[in-house]
Amino acid sequence: MKLSLVFATAISSFFVSATTGFGFSGQAHALTFSGISSATWGEPTPGSVDTDPIYTGVGSNTFNWGDSNVCPPSQNTPSGCTITGPNKLTFNGSSFSTDINSVFKIADLTYFNGTVFEGTSVEFLPLNLNVSFSSPTGISEVFDFKLHLVNTLNQATAPEENADFVFIDTNLSNRSFTFEGNKYTLELTGFNPDVSQISIKALEGATATTAIYAKIKTIPEPGTVAGLSLLGIYLISRKKFLEKKY
Question: Quick check: is 68 in a domain?
Answer without folding.
Answer: yes
